[in-house]
Amino acid sequence: MNDLSTQIPRLREAVIQRLVAQAPQPAPLTTSEADALVTRIKALLKAKDAVLVVHFYVDAALQKLAEETGGRVSDSLDMADFGSRHAAKTLVVIGVRFMGETAKILSPEKTVLMPTLQAECSLDLGCPAEDFAAFCDQHPDRTVVVYANTSAAVKARADWIVTSSNALKIVSHLKEQGEKILWAPDRHLGRYIQEQTGADMLLWQGECVVHDEFSAEGLRELLREHPDAEVLVHPESPKAVVQMAHAVGSTSQLIKAASESKADTLIVATDRGIFYKMQQAAPGKKLIAAPTLNRGTCNVCAHCPWMAMNGLQNLLAALENPQGHEVEVDTAIIERARLPIERMLAFSRGQGLVTAQPKD
Ligand code: 13P
Ligand code: SF4
C-alpha cells in the first residue's frame, strides 16, 4: 500500500456513509395495497417461470412471499447454491448486488433480476477492484481468499470465495496445505478466522457498516438487565462483541443456534431482518437486537440500509419490466470469477454445508 494507505480507508468510509444516508427506502404500504401487489407478483412469477431467492435481512413481506411461492429464504452461500441448481428460467434475487452478480456468474444462461441494482454493500464499496488487484500483485506468494460480499471483478482475482458459513473450514483446509493467505475485505471476519485457525493471513481493512456498529459496552449493560440471555453474534462484528457471544456464525448458523438454545431470551448481533425466520425457528423466545454504538444517533441501527431498499413495489416493477433490473456481468469476468465460486460450492457440498440450512 502507498503513503495514502491511512487516508484512503477514511475517505472511503466518508463516501460509504454518504451512500448509507442516500439509500432510498420503499414507501410504507397499507394491508390492501400490499395484498394487491402480492397477487400481481405471484401471477407474474408463474407467467415468467421465475423463482425468488431471498436473503434473511430483507423485509418480512418478501421473505413470506418466497416461502409461499416455492422460492428460498437463506444465507448468501445457500442462495448461490439454490439459484445454481434451480430449473427456473429467471432468478429474482432479493438482497444486495453482489448476491445478484453471484447468481448471474453461476447461471449466465438465466435472466437474473433484482428489485433494485442500487442495493450496495459497504464491504463491496470498500474494496475497489483496481486497488485490490494492486494489493494482490504485491503479495504473489499468497492464496487469495475473498469474501462473497465483493464485486464480480474482485472475485475474478480470487483463488477461493468464502462466506461466513464456510470460511473457517476453507481457511483450515488451506492452512493444512501450508498456504499463506491474502484475505479481503472484512477485517473483523478475517481476524476471527485467523484467531480460530491460526492461519497466516494478511487482511484487507474493510468493514460492514451494520455489524461494525455493535457495541460491547451496550451489550454488557443489556446483559445486566437480562442476565440469563444468550448472545448470538455474526462474525462481521468487532472483536469485543464476538468475545461476549454464546454462538458465533453466519445468518443460518445463528438461526440454528437460536432453535437449539435453552435460553428464553436471545440478544442478536446481526441485521434485525433475521428475526422473521429466527422467530419461526425459535417460537416463544424473546429476541432482542444488540445495542449499537451511541454516537448521538446510530447510523444504521442493526438494519442494512441497502437490504432495506427492497420492497414489494420494486419487485413488481422488476417483473413487469426487467429494464434497469437485470443483472449483467462481463463475460470475461464471469469466466474467471466462476472458478473460485464453484470451488467454494464443491467444497461446501462435500462438507454438507449447503444442505444443513433451516427448512423454509
Ligand atoms: P451470510 O452469508 O451469513 O448470510 O451474511 C451475509 C451478509 O451480508 C452479512 O452481513
Ligand atoms: Fe454488506 Fe453489511 Fe449490508 Fe451485509 S449487512 S450486505 S455485509 S453492508
Give a quick rundown of the structure.
This protein is an alpha/beta fold and 360 residues long. Helix content is 45%, strand content 13%. The protein has helices at 7-22, 31-47, 60-68, 76-85, 97-106, 122-125, 129-138, 152-155, 167-176, 187-197, 216-225, 239-242, 251-260, 275-281, 312-320, 331-350; strands at 50-55, 72-74, 90-94, 111-113, 143-147, 160-162, 181-184, 201-203, 230-233, 247-248, 265-269, 286-289.
How are the elements arranged and paired?
Elements: H1 7-22, H2 31-47, E1 50-55, H3 60-68, E2 72-74, H4 76-85, E3 90-94, H5 97-106, E4 111-113, H6 122-125, H7 129-138, E5 143-147, H8 152-155, E6 160-162, H9 167-176, E7 181-184, H10 187-197, E8 201-203, H11 216-225, E9 230-233, H12 239-242, E10 247-248, H13 251-260, E11 265-269, H14 275-281, E12 286-289, H15 312-320, H16 331-350
Parallel strand pairs: 1-2, 1-3, 3-4, 5-6, 5-7, 7-8, 9-10, 9-11, 11-12
Give a quick set of tags describing it.
360 residues, alpha/beta, Rossmann fold, 3 domains, four-stranded parallel beta sheet, binds 1,3-dihydroxyacetonephosphate, binds iron/sulfur cluster
